[in-house]
UniProtKB/TrEMBL annotation:
Belongs to the universal stress protein A family. This is UspA domain-containing protein. It comes from the Eukaryota. The lineage of its organism: Eukaryota, Sar, Alveolata, Ciliophora, Intramacronucleata. It comes from Paramecium pentaurelia. Pfam families: Usp (PF00582). Transmembrane segments: none annotated. Residues 7-143, 155-280 form the UspA domain. InterPro entries: UspA (IPR006016).
Length: 280
């Protein structure tokens, strides 16, 4: 069943990375009208009087107000600007609370913050780290702005391992690949002890995808005890893989009935050059 119309929310701090996340949200929002509203949220801290003009709340508000007014009727967007609540541990948690209270379908953040790209790209900024580790909402972390053009749509890599969470991730990719130019690469990267499950997983994927009109293909990588490195190498060596979609944890967490943030998800988040779509 295709997803119902819902809302998409962008968290902004005034940085170029968060502006890029906004434009990525626009790319999703403007096609096929699958979302009711695009929401821009910002939480300020009045104690940070040292912030430059471009990072001040009123400046950010006016900037996004102009961007939204130039694109949409007022019914199609919201600007939610709040001061950090008394007793709130940090701004990042307040953003997650806003997203949860609004029951948005996706929260979009920039992969970097006001300080820009780190020298070591595998060291996560506080905002993206807090968001992916704690969000109860599917999260899109934008490393680069991707756009559809006349002939090419978005290409999603979906990491599948047979767990319920990985099929939930596939559902998210299906919901976002709504344009006829979009395509899915559904990838199973087994460790040697799980290589034999490939046929079963492929069959289930085929049955699953039969319900949808999507362009897709299934790929099983060579078995390896460092299977995630094979996935990252495949993504980073490709010029046309835009988004990598995965669950916050996988098969091992399902077996152990735990909800920890998995090591595979952590590696993909830090090292894959594609934009991240993480499904909790």
């Amino acid at each position: 069943m295709e997803s119902n119309k819902s809302n998409i929310m962008v968290a902004t701090d005034g940085s170029q990375a968060s502006k890029q996340a906004f434009f990525q949200a626009v790319e999703f929002f403007e096609y096929k009208n699958i979302f009711n509203q695009i929401i821009v949220a910002h939480v300020s801290d009045e104690s940070k009087t040292y912030l430059p003009f471009e990072f001040q709340s009123t400046t950010i508000y006016e900037d996004y107000k102009i961007e939204l007014l130039s694109r949409y009727p007022e019914a199609n967007y919201q600007l939610i600007f709040q001061e950090k609540a008394q007793g709130q541990e940090n701004i990042r948690n307040q953003i997650l609370n806003i997203a949860g209270n609004l029951n948005v379908s996706y929260l979009i953040v920039g992969f970097n913050g006001r300080k820009g790209v780190k020298q070591d790209a595998t060291i996560l900024g506080q905002t993206v780290r807090n968001s992916v580790y704690n969000s109860k909402i599917p999260l899109i972390a934008v490393k680069k702005l991707y756009k559809r053009d006349e002939t090419n749509g978005f290409k999603f890599v979906v990491c599948i391992d047979g767990s319920k969470k990985s099929y939930k991730s596939l559902e998210s990719a299906i919901a976002l690949s709504f344009d006829e130019r979009d395509s899915l690469l559904i990838c199973f990267a087994p460790t040697p002890d799980r290589e034999a499950f490939g046929t079963t997983i492929k069959t289930k994927v085929e049955e699953f995808m039969a319900k949808y009109q999507r362009k897709w293909q299934y790929k099983q990588l060579d078995a390896s005890y460092r299977a995630i490195e094979n996935v990252i190498e495949m993504i980073n060596n490709s010029d046309d893989l835009d988004f990598v979609v995965f669950g916050s944890n996988g098969y091992r967490a399902q077996l152990e009935n735990k909800t920890f943030f998995g090591s595979t998800a952590d590696e993909l988040l830090k090292k894959a050059k594609a934009n991240i779509i993480m499904v909790p």
